[in-house]
User: Fold these one by one.
Assistant:
Number 1:
Amino acid sequence: MLRTHNNGELRLAHVNQTVTLCGWVQRTRDKGGMIWIDLRDRYGITQLMLEEGKTPKEVLDLARTFGREFVISATGVVVERLSKNDKIATGDIEIRVSEISILNPAKLPPFLIEDDTDGGDDLRMKYRYLDLRRNPVRANLQLRHQVARFTRDYLDNQDFIEVETPVLIKSTPEGARDFVVPSRMNPGEFYALPQSPQTFKQLLMVSGFDRYYQIVKCFRDEDLRADRQPEFTQIDCEMSFIEQEDVLNMFEGLIRHLFTKVKGMDLGEVSRMTYAHAMKYYGSDKPDIRFDMKFVELKSEEVDLVSDKDFAVFDAANTVVGINAKGCAEYTRKQVDELTEFVKRPQIGAKGLIYFRYNNDGTLKSSVDKFYSEEDLKKWAEAFGAEKGDLILILPGDGDKVRKQLNELRLEMGNRLGLRDPKKYAAHWVIDFPLLEYGEEEDRWFAMHHPFTSPKPEDIQYLESGDLGKIRANAYDLVINGVEVGGGSIRIFQKDLQAKMFEVLGFSDEEAKHQFGFLMDAFEYGAPPHGGLAFGFDRLCSLFGGSDSIRDFIAFPKNNSGRDVMIDSPSTIDDKQLNELKIRTVV
Amino acid sequence: MLRTHNNGELRLAHVNQTVTLCGWVQRTRDKGGMIWIDLRDRYGITQLMLEEGKTPKEVLDLARTFGREFVISATGVVVERLSKNDKIATGDIEIRVSEISILNPAKLPPFLIEDDTDGGDDLRMKYRYLDLRRNPVRANLQLRHQVARFTRDYLDNQDFIEVETPVLIKSTPEGARDFVVPSRMNPGEFYALPQSPQTFKQLLMVSGFDRYYQIVKCFRDEDLRADRQPEFTQIDCEMSFIEQEDVLNMFEGLIRHLFTKVKGMDLGEVSRMTYAHAMKYYGSDKPDIRFDMKFVELKSEEVDLVSDKDFAVFDAANTVVGINAKGCAEYTRKQVDELTEFVKRPQIGAKGLIYFRYNNDGTLKSSVDKFYSEEDLKKWAEAFGAEKGDLILILPGDGDKVRKQLNELRLEMGNRLGLRDPKKYAAHWVIDFPLLEYGEEEDRWFAMHHPFTSPKPEDIQYLESGDLGKIRANAYDLVINGVEVGGGSIRIFQKDLQAKMFEVLGFSDEEAKHQFGFLMDAFEYGAPPHGGLAFGFDRLCSLFGGSDSIRDFIAFPKNNSGRDVMIDSPSTIDDKQLNELKIRTVV
């Protein structure tokens, strides 16, 4: 080893030992004949000390040539520091340097290697290897390593076996777009990269593996929104001879274990909520339940407190729904206007915002006083459980569409009221998802989870009767702080039901056989009841790290155009390669 | 859970408990009013027992419909068995069944699900999910899981951090052929799948990660020889501020740990051997040192015991080299002919085999008695340290080429003499590899390991002087039982040296910058001395499993044409996909 110790481990107990340290020059101070150097590595910072008259002159001279981020080696004696530095673990000691050398000089980095850097996003992506030197970024990847480790510990303990499934698989039409890989040995044919190891883990259940997991890279060629990556990592799991309840308990246990080990905290209750309930009361299939603020309906299939008062907007809407922003009655006109602007943003798309205040003096004042009497407003207030000081925010519109708009407003109010503390965690399962959803544009039904999800046995009748929208699935998502961190389902394990499912999704018999024949064949040779789920590992790590961005938890992420700007990829390839693969580009 | 216990856990202590078991019907015996069913799952086999007159008739009737591999559920009371079966862990008990049901029927499998199956390779590949049900195959994957787990334990303990590097990277011209992935968002451009995370792990060292590892999928689009897979798994490692000795010690420690944990045995000494020594005495850079049988030269640059005796074959050869097959003097003519045929096989390519016997009566008898006197043979015998009863096998030819031929013969003799016991392990490092090797066909120098390997400091002079063949690298392979299980090197970490290396490999400045500019840039911002290695994880597992075939240790392997015959991949893709990717196939 080029060093005897790392930069995080020396203490008073080492005083008088001669040590050799290696690392990066974080900072140099040269003052009054003394030179101090902060030497950094992954483990910490140790202070080197050189003194005119005591340190050999050539050592002092060399040290004065050091720039930031030079890689050096220094040998000296550990001495007690006069003024301790309690901000670093080695702050009780310093090294009185006798020998020093440059292992590699460094150009001045394009941004500061400090916890708070002056580098913009683009620069930090291009020089990702320098950004990774910064403590917060490195800490994120160390956290990621820990989460993986504790995940494996838990699952190993529960008799799960990690099995590697192939990366070069087969393209399938359902779901997101595949990345494909031309096969040189089979010209004209392509492999696809897996969007998930779904069919392989099901085959492992058919094989009797009983409990499988894998921390595995998956790939989706989708247009990248913020915080989506073309390659991402899943904790992928599957179990046999289980029911939904067993899966929920097993993986609630995993998450609880991770909170204990990674965050040192008890997660608390993990509640359950049906998809129908989530949509009705939160307008989202992943509600943030760190705060209440449930939706209240003024008009719906069940209630109507607003129609026939000559207010055309409410009359035209099939749904009028709102939230109670407790204690916000004194919001200024400007604040309310901001909220109106917020819901009118194109990505939310509401036409406008109606509100009323339950003033502290007991009066009720609305933005629609022209149409509704104080008597009307009192009934509304009652529905909202409103009290003096509350502000009620209301959106009119169309069913789930307006509910989704109100969900955005609810989350915004949660932010404004400080109800979404990233250090607090509230987890719950959303269950009973619909099996199918209708694609207006394509005019056909799609699997909401994927085509292998089992309908609830009591709803299978609707597959036959054609009431496809009524079918609920044994599917579930784990939601923490409004983020879907994982999801899964009980799977179909009978060939006939699987064939029926493909039929409903518009596959011809031939297509189904071509794409998934191997799975349906497998179901004929003794497939056990099984189910499982997958966690988004990048997202889980970002949640533990208290960040919204998965990119911060990926060592070498790609930008929104799918480019790695550091290595400049993707790139053109040689004609020789194209010829061997028997493909041409037509750009 | 659909079961109360698995099929491997019930013992006498459970007698009188009512249990529910699930699993696959391994075997049914119906005899004298009794039915016994062997119920199988991953954990073991439990015997179910049904009895006419005592078991409800409908249960008996149903049980009589079961075929092999039916998935069933059975409830009953645990009772002590009259005749114990000490071949299975649950052999002391059986289940007196009161309820039974079919969870999923099964067609008769195309081959027997037994330890010894009647299924041929092709059938077992097509129905891989059934082959995986067999104990030996499942045990291989469980072993693989264990090897991964113990590897992570060791490396975690040594402060290594597992970091995931990207799968969608950039195609590079050096090394094997890349698999490429067309980019839809960047038309005309391609990602490549990594042949190894080499440059990324080096960047992590530049980032100060200090100790990195990853158990990671890698990809090579090579023509598949037996036992090579287009996707394979590496244990990939890198360390900073180290010298070669530190890397060897660290990973000798890992292998030792794995032998202790996985095999329950001490690996013994891990010796060292230079590449030059390995080639001279074994004709291979991965000699199997479970047995000695070193090469002895009769003619080389250093010795000549054969020339000028009118034997044109030896006169024409620059190298005459042989091995002493101890105790084989009484090999029959037929046996010697077999060996001659062996070395003349096209894949070995020797012209013929010369031999002499040191007979038990003290006489020497050679296949070239016409040219050499007993006096000559005595000198040869002395060189070989031959004793009565030995058979000396000799090949003439050209330097390393004939040595490689003799290596094959040596291994064959090792097999014939039972010297290659798969239950014995001998590990050693081969060190001091040449940095470069000359490609006759391409008429240029190639990196023997890869372009990032550091020359030995004392040999850097030859880079300048042009004696490229003389340069030794700080590169090393770990060889166990003649199998290269891992290899690595100390890396170049200085920009100028790296640039020089690319120049020597025939890169123009522009090409070097285009392909590896990011790495050379990184070296300018403070790169530490570093090095590492990678183990072939599939091969390591097969070694622990005592098998020659990595395919047996991969859940879903591909065949020699790179096809997954189970899912029938690769396959054609839609024109829509091709259009989106802006590529055409030209088959």
Note: Chain A touches chain B through 124 residues (CB under 8 Å).
Number 2:
Amino acid sequence: MTDVLSRRDLDFLLYEWLDVVALTSRKRFAEHSKDTFDAVLDLSADLAHKHFATHNKKADAHEPTMRPDGTVEMIPEVKTALDAYAAAGLIAGAFDESVGGMQLPTTVARAAMAWFQAANASTSSYPFLTIANANLLAEYGTEQQIDEYVRPMLEGRWFGTMCLSEPQAGSSLADITTRAVPQDDGSYRVTGTKMWISGGDHELTENIVHLVLAKTPGGGPGVKGISLFIVPKYLPGADGAAGERNDVTLVGLNHKMGNRGTTNTLLAFGDGTHTPGGKSGAVGFLVGEEHRGLSYMFHMMNEARIGVGFLAIALGYVGYRKSLDYATVRTQGRPLGAKDPASPPVPIIEHADVRRMLLAQKSYVEGALALGLYCSRLVDEHDTADDAATGDQATLLLDVLTPIAKSWPSQWCLEANSLAIQVHGGYGYTRDYDVEQYYRDNRLNPIHEGTHGIQGLDLLGRKVTMHDGAGLSLLGSKIAATVARARSLGGDATGYADALDTVWNRIVDITAALWAAGDAVAALANSSVYLEAFGHTVIAWMWLEQLIATEGKSGDFYDGKRMAARYFYTHELPKVGPQLDLLASGDRTTLDMNPSWF
Amino acid sequence: MTDVLSRRDLDFLLYEWLDVVALTSRKRFAEHSKDTFDAVLDLSADLAHKHFATHNKKADAHEPTMRPDGTVEMIPEVKTALDAYAAAGLIAGAFDESVGGMQLPTTVARAAMAWFQAANASTSSYPFLTIANANLLAEYGTEQQIDEYVRPMLEGRWFGTMCLSEPQAGSSLADITTRAVPQDDGSYRVTGTKMWISGGDHELTENIVHLVLAKTPGGGPGVKGISLFIVPKYLPGADGAAGERNDVTLVGLNHKMGNRGTTNTLLAFGDGTHTPGGKSGAVGFLVGEEHRGLSYMFHMMNEARIGVGFLAIALGYVGYRKSLDYATVRTQGRPLGAKDPASPPVPIIEHADVRRMLLAQKSYVEGALALGLYCSRLVDEHDTADDAATGDQATLLLDVLTPIAKSWPSQWCLEANSLAIQVHGGYGYTRDYDVEQYYRDNRLNPIHEGTHGIQGLDLLGRKVTMHDGAGLSLLGSKIAATVARARSLGGDATGYADALDTVWNRIVDITAALWAAGDAVAALANSSVYLEAFGHTVIAWMWLEQLIATEGKSGDFYDGKRMAARYFYTHELPKVGPQLDLLASGDRTTLDMNPSWF
């Protein structure tokens, strides 16, 4: 069986480029070493191949169903896999030792998780959401909330969700109508309907911890009135076990094109199906302060956005590896110009167009993986930097990069999956092979955790303008440093450095020009195009970084990196040119289009 | 229910642009008029909505299965729909009256078929293949073969297939191993295995007429030794009904990501399961002359390639229309800069990024439909031109455009389907809505009837160089004529004309430069990039043609056409620039990549 990721590539990115071993000099990671990191990666690869990859197709073919009694039925392999994952302590990997964690760097924890995401996207989503939920509570919850909810989640006895969207309000959180009314005992009763809740119900764990956005009486209009609540499926019992059933009810499961193994649910809160404490209404517990719910949720959301990027990367990566394997063993046709039609067919990797499809995939998935790990490294910097200024810088840079880390892999690692199908020809279109599932699974990623369009608005409308453009400037200084190092190397690196420098300077100029008139409607008319151009530029930066890291090293692996960098700079980065021309022109086509003309 | 295509757009393309009514002055179409064309289109729309669209989702959810006795089970709605289609005489639409046809122009017949393709891609494939099969036999078959096979196919009593690929030879027909051995009675016995045969078995009709490529003893190596045979599932009986069972056996059904309603089969010919005439071996009848099979098959293949383009267009089109409907009724969010967060949400079509996604879809599907119908008009010209030179010109132009008419919709109308999902947000990812199925169905089209890579090799390696570049020159003269007309209009049209002219001249120069050294390996290294740049240029030409056709006309419909043309020229055509730069640079990245470096 093909490994779902390349350990060699991870080693390169983690050790030869990002130098995660240097993190062990920080107090938080002092107990760690390259050996412990390797052990976690080895364990993850092993568990992912043994327990996750093995039921990926089965979970797709046998999606969860809702039983007449309202519970969820799914194939048993999911629970077996997740129990093994939890037993290995991986849910708590990056958490404090004080709550039972390993205090792994986020960079290593993300790399470890990527094995599971590549092996089985839908089963990996349960711990993925649980970790993000627990992270939020560890940051903003009370000691009691941490004891009651975070610990059982980190042990894998309970899982977590995030409940934001409602049927009438997907991207528009200002319009949520779920209400939370305070009770005399300090708790709240929550009433409303939440849509698209992944992992929203199942029998995998004893309990499910929902983090729910709701409005309290007297809150302001729009997003300002939103607060955040813990609403467990079962109220915590006296002994720390799941107790009385809360008034949270599974209304239905969504049936999706892909990602079928993850239950995706419509949940009713407080519809009276259950009567905790003798009355209807879902019992909820406020997290932090009232009306600050959205800011807390964005802590989880930003983490989830990077995580969705990783999910897209992992799916792109495994598709790349399987199509590479296929191209190596499948024989068909002869080299162009072969004189003898009776000569034996060659492996299809010998055909230039097949190599093009493989190089494109390689440049997408390895470029995106570099960005995902780079962003994770920024999280570690934020958490453990020696001085506050360095930590703040990491946070600022992460803020700017998050919409790219989410959207770019969602677009281009999906494209990689399409190419993986294409390399397989007709076989790739059948369910006998794996790649069509990756393509279906990956199509979710431009939608959830903020659609592609939302990421564009976030980047151009907020991230590059905030703090007077400080984030944009910071990213510019990082890119400039890379450009300077590359120029000093000469050869291809210098040419790429020049190209990147030129494109980046255009982005800076265009950003200023778009906002010069102070007209947000005009500035944001092509924000998705801006997002895509910005994204390709960031990935070009990641490729220049990787190219620099191969300097002076020889062997197939490094030659492959160099060729992928060359592919990205010759075939991909130039695509940014027309996008920047469009933005620079202040194009108003989308604004001038009257809906009645369609 | 939304119409699956726009009749208004078809009327514009057929009557206001391509002037198909002018064809009625030709002898072959003298019995026709705008009224008869309208009647066929109305009937097709009606049948497509009533019998095809209604089981599209059901056919996807309940794909055909193979019973223990080796026969195929499928939902009954497929047969009901196809019986209605056949009863309306539509299989024979474009055929000679002498064989029971209506002698419709191909342009009208293709437009009529597009309704069925948009309503239900997989059910439409059965008559689609039957028509292509019958067309081949009507051209190259003997009178007896036409009576025995073409007539029952046109009546819908028998269906047809094309059997080219084998498990070890998909794109590489030189490597087929199916053998045909001549018998004393003039028939052949065929032995071999054919893969990916759409409609290869079913119980929809009394008989199935397979057109099979096979090699005869003594034939040359490679494709030169290939001959074409009729191999019916049941040998024709004395009374014209299906007679004795031939030795053709369904080995298995392929299970696909989409297009599930069309059986796609592995067929064994002559494996001894049946013993027609008392001995094993599938009885086949030679079509035309020995060793010319591939040239005959390309008659069918070229028609099928245009038809696959239409299938992709139709799927793109219906997805566009459904996402347009959704964007009009789904409310969410507020316009940028809206001050009052309590103001009611607006239909999402009010958001610029949603309009971008709709404009992109519109420019793709209407641009592609224009090309598909333009190519169909060339077929009519080939068939009925007043002088041979005009007919030959039409054939030459069609030869050059066929790889574009197949590949461009397969790529960009699939992208349209992705955008249709995106407009729907999370709902679009569920099977409760239609668009995810279109996306899955459409993903087949870059694969079958010659993959994307094969189309690129065909275009750059053969079509633009054949006859000393006569096809390329002819296309250039057509584009130049459009450019000249557009320039005379002034305004936007002049700017678009200049842009198109510039790009086209670059393509001509680059084509010459690529072949200047006579090194096919180097010339074809980026043939897929060439295909894509060429395709976008051709569609830009189609948009300029449409823009000219709106001249002097007012109203929403024409304003929409003008905006879609503007979208294509501002957002799409510029993408060609970097592709041409890459080609002009003689980039060798894909050639220099060593397989061991991946």
Note: The CA atoms of residues 84 and 224 of chain B lie 41 Å apart.
